[in-house]
Design brief:
Blueprint (H helix, E strand, L loop, with lengths): L4 H7 L12 H4 L2 H5 L11 H30 L3 H25 L4 H7 L12 H9 L15 H12 L3 H11 L21 H12 L5 H32 L11 H7 L6 H9 L1
């Protein structure tokens, strides 16, 4: 005779009474999270749209947590910890890439039914995404403006804009390890967009031509490559999903939509890491 599932639970001595102790729902604040979806339209598919973006913001929260810690660890020469964190960031980015697969099930008529209820709200205004871009070196002063109506958020974004990026700290590390990084790439106005340098590429080439001697720097270069590779995939899936759902209509945030997103595909975060592959 097979054992009933009720008997299995009893035999395993699972705790079933949580009247006096913390439960799973309590620990994860699920009452708050699961009641944070407030569709504004009568459209069935709006819940998908909300959940997809909310879960993406949760993944971005974790990504920022890991990115900031990795930048700190690189500055402190703790590369083993930084490598683990950067690998995790790349895996998080993969989750964000696959999130577009779910949103892509929304057809143009389904999106059109709810779009008027979005107003001017847009992922373009995500302060966490902007902090991620700034942490990865894509600095743009114009992107502070969407947060000027929320001083506490503006402070977060502005701090990321002014701080050295992941790549800035990587180049400082190369210099500390004895590689000849141009001085103007070691101390500069960190809020300015990064400009590629032949001198920086030559420094990376030293590490890539002798990986045994410079193993940690070589590994750092490959961690950065993995991260940007994943980020490019995210951008590509973003633009193709938007084109699939709304075509070439303007975005709710005021941009050209697909035309804007396609321009972002050309942004290279760690240019010398990619160029050296041709010159090796």
């Amino acid at each position: 005779m097979s054992t009933s599932t009720e008997q299995i639970v009893h035999d395993e001595k699972a705790q079933l009474d949580f009247s006096a102790s913390m439960s799973y729902t309590d620990y994860l604040s699920l009452d708050t999270i699961l009641n944070a979806q407030h569709p504004r339209s009568p459209a069935h598919d709006e819940l998908l749209f909300i959940v997809q973006h909310q879960t993406s913001e949760l993944w971005m929260k974790l990504m920022l947590h890991e990115l900031r810690a990795a930048i700190h660890c690189i500055a402190e020469d703790d590369l083993s910890s930084a490598f683990k964190m950067l690998a995790r960031v790349s895996r998080i980015m993969e989750q964000l890439v696959h999130a577009w697969d779910v949103l892509a099930t929304m057809t143009p008529p389904e999106y059109s039914a709810m779009r008027p209820y979005l107003g001017a709200s847009s992922g373009f205004q995500s302060w966490q995404y902007r902090c991620i871009e700034f942490a990865l070196g894509n600095k743009n002063a114009a992107m502070l403006k969407p947060h000027s109506h929320r001083p506490e958020l503006l402070a977060e974004v502005e701090a990321a804009w002014r701080a050295p990026s992941l790549y800035d700290e990587a180049l400082r590390l190369l210099a500390r390890r004895g590689l000849d990084v141009p001085a103007d790439h070691l101390e500069r106005d960190w809020s300015k967009p990064y400009e590629s340098s032949d001198g920086v590429e030559q420094a990376w080439l030293v590490a890539y031509r002798d990986p045994k001697k410079y193993w940690e720097l070589y590994q750092l270069g490959e961690e950065l490559t993995d991260l940007e590779d994943a980020f490019r995939l995210w951008r590509f899936r973003h633009v193709t999903t938007v084109e699939r759902v709304i075509g070439f209509k303007r975005g709710t945030g005021g941009t050209g939509g697909v035309s804007y997103l396609r321009k972002m595909l050309d942004v290279v975060l760690f240019p010398e890491i990619w160029k050296l592959r041709t010159d090796l």
